[in-house]
Specification:
11 helices; globular; 13 strands; about 45% helix; six-stranded parallel β-sheet; Heat Shock Protein 90; Rossmann fold
Length: about 450
């Protein structure tokens, strides 16, 4: 009896050790994925900036334009893959969050279709979009809903052969004129259909699982990680919506239906800006990656900004002795003096008292990365930097809002009393000095 008990205890100990080893291996894998996606963004940033600058300088030479088109398409694929990796890690850790605000569903759809325009054209597809003629307002994270629709369109493009048809339709009640009863549906239905490869009955129950992919030849040729629909399901659920995938089988096309709640608050919907350009500003770029500062600096100069470049914190401190920037874009993971230490020192410089400090990073989730303090930085942007995001941030400052977060990064939603006091001080300083430069004016 004693020996049997000892054997049972040994087996239980071995089983516990195996579970612990498996848990540790899973944690290390997740950390590796998060770190990999972060590190991949660093070389992608200067490539993206250089391509954008090259497009602005492109001639009418068909060979040059063709080469730029190829590079641009592959760049979009790389960014999508890196984003998928990062989102997979966030889903596993419960960190894929949303930041809802009121907006027009039509604007979100338009952004998603615009983002996919080049892929649709390259695949020789026909895309048909139908949206209501009246405003449809949602309380949602516009960037994340754009990602949902873009992911669905990406799959449609991926699994539909050249010349195929893709339909995107939005149906919703007009809450401004229809009587609103408790039983009335207050949902928008977004449907994406294609006449492509379809989904086999055996795979259909698993389409929302991480890394699940169709075995079709076209899908394999187009590549991908099989993460897109898993992210879609998570984000739709985060918006209190539902998503259903239907297909009559292989070769029969696919239909994805998303239902989202809408609100009767059309007066609060933002008005889309006709352009997303920035008035000229004095910008300091700080990044130990020389290619990153060179490429992004050239792109900003083409936009009409005055740009100074620094490859380290000490270099940046030397530059501001004779150059007063309106905006400083600072990489937070530089060796030696990192971006957070540099920002703290810039805050103490009288000549930088009005400078807006923007933290740049590959992500906020990579293990071992410093945490960004919203009391030091005015904004956090994700690499590769989007000029549209930067333009939005600068416009928000012109409107008097200090704290801004773009991409997938965010500052904490709540603040303690000390944080609130700092924010109030910054608001007063900004209100008193918003006339300083042309780009500060509304």
């Amino acid at each position: 009896m004693t020996r049997a008990k000892a054997d049972a205890e040994a087996r239980a100990s071995e089983a516990e050790a195996s579970r612990n080893a498996l848990t540790l291996a899973e944690a290390r894998k997740d950390d590796f994925i998060a770190l990999l996606s972060h590190e991949l963004r660093n070389p992608l940033a200067p490539i993206d900036s250089a391509l954008t600058a090259a497009r602005k300088l492109a001639t009418d030479n068909p060979a040059v334009l063709s080469a730029l088109g190829i590079a641009d398409r592959q760049m979009r694929i790389l960014k999508r893959l890196v984003g998928d990796l990062l989102d997979a890690s966030r889903i596993r850790h419960g960190k894929l969050s949303t930041r809802p605000s009121y907006g027009l569903l039509q604007d979100i759809v338009a952004d998603a279709v615009t983002a996919m325009k080049a892929d649709v054209k390259n695949g020789e597809h026909r895309i048909h979009v139908t949206i209501p003629p009246f405003p449809v307002t949602v309380h949602a994270d516009a960037a994340r809903l754009t990602q949902v629709i873009s992911n669905l369109l990406t799959n449609a493009v991926k699994y539909t052969p050249p010349g195929g048809d893709i339909t995107l339709s939005v149906e919703a009640p007009d809450l401004s004129i229809e009587p609103i009863h408790d039983s009335s549906p207050r949902t928008a239905v977004i449907t994406v259909r294609d006449n492509g490869a379809g989904i086999s009955p055996s795979l259909l129950p698993h389409v929302f699982e991480m890394f699940a992919q169709s075995a079709s030849a076209r899908g394999k040729a187009e590549g991908g990680l099989g993460i897109g629909l898993a992210v879609v399901k998570h984000l739709v659920a985060a918006h209190n919506g539902t998503v259903i995938v239907a297909s009559d089988g292989e070769g029969q096309g696919t239909e994805v239906t998303v239902q989202l709640p809408i609100v009767c608050k059309s007066t609060s919907a933002p008005v889309a800006s006709a352009t997303r350009t920035m008035a000229p500003a004095r910008i300091l770029l700080v990044d130990d990656n020389a290619d990153a500062t060179a490429a992004l600096g050239t792109l900003l100069e083409l936009e009409g900004h005055e740009v100074k470049r620094a490859q380290s914190g000490p270099d940046a401190l030397s530059i501001v002795e004779s150059f007063t920037p309106d905006v400083a874009l600072i990489d937070i993971t530089m060796p030696g003096m990192d971006g957070i230490e540099l920002a703290q020192l810039l805050r103490l410089r009288a000549q930088c008292s009005l400078t807006k400090l923007v933290a740049l990073s590959g992500s906020t989730d990579a293990p071992g990365r410093p945490q960004i303090d919203e009391r030091i930085f005015d904004c956090h942007l994700i690499k590769p930097l989007s000029l549209d995001d930067l333009a939005d941030v600068m416009r928000s400052w012109r409107r008097g809002r200090r704290k801004v977060s773009m991409g997938t990064a965010s500052f904490p939603g709540s603040a303690n009393s000390a944080d609130s006091l700092v924010t109030k001080i910054w608001h007063r300083r900004w209100d008193a000095t918003r006339h300083r430069k042309d780009w500060h004016r509304s």
